[in-house]
Amino acid sequence: MDVRNITGSIVALVTPFTADGEIDFKALDRLVDFHLENETDGILVLGTTGESSTMTDAEDVAVAQHVINRVDGAIPVIGGAGSNSTEESLRKAKSLQMIGCDALLLITPYYNKSNEEGIYRHFTEVLDQTEIPSILYNIPGRTGCSISEANVVRLAEHPNVMGIKEASGSISYATSVARHLSPDFRMYSGNDDMVVPILSLGGSGVISVWANVQPRLCHQLVSSFLEGDCQKSLRIQLEGLDLVHALFCEVNPIPVKAALAMMGLMEETYRMPLYPMAANNRDRLERVMKEAGILG
Asked: pTM for this one?
């Protein structure tokens, strides 16, 4: 599968858990089927939204393998191999490559952060020792550090880098990155409220939390823009803002898992320190979902 040319809506998939905290593979099947039936263009497993930071190595592999098997080649599956430990990130990357992920998502080293050269080498250590493409992940609000434009330029030259998930929330940064885009180096919005702005800079799509609940609409947002109907794309973006804001009224993925539970697709179970959302925020989310026609 030529994942390097992927455009559209890539869902940052949640990881469903049973009431006793185990991986809920039946719910995972329902979620994957939901996306296959509703035009999602790719699936990212084991990202922030997937709560991978609280999962064991065995659980990571089991979830990724299960999704790969369920998708059965229909759309690309990207595996999150992020860690603040370079050695750990490499180990995860090799495991995900071995079981058949089409690409990897690599995050900056959170908490310890490192200096400019250290961040560059954190990525290249993994890139040099894996064979499938990787997407860099820039989300300084989570990690405390950013991929500088200079490092973006250096890393974009690596043959195993296919793009960047840009989630800084800064149009200025995204504009700087846009100067270095090419058919071999793409940009994907990591913010659901900034998809159209990123597309207008030459972006190729979104890696989306929103797509968990409205996959077909998120696909249409991107496909409309790329097909030249920018007004339709903008209309979808603006009309979806209330839902997007509700999905981030508490730390991700708390609201989106609550939303999926309301839709009957999974149980609302988290792993600590994540905790069920406050009643007022839950009421807000339910109201907005009803207004969007997701709930009756």
From this structure: 0.96
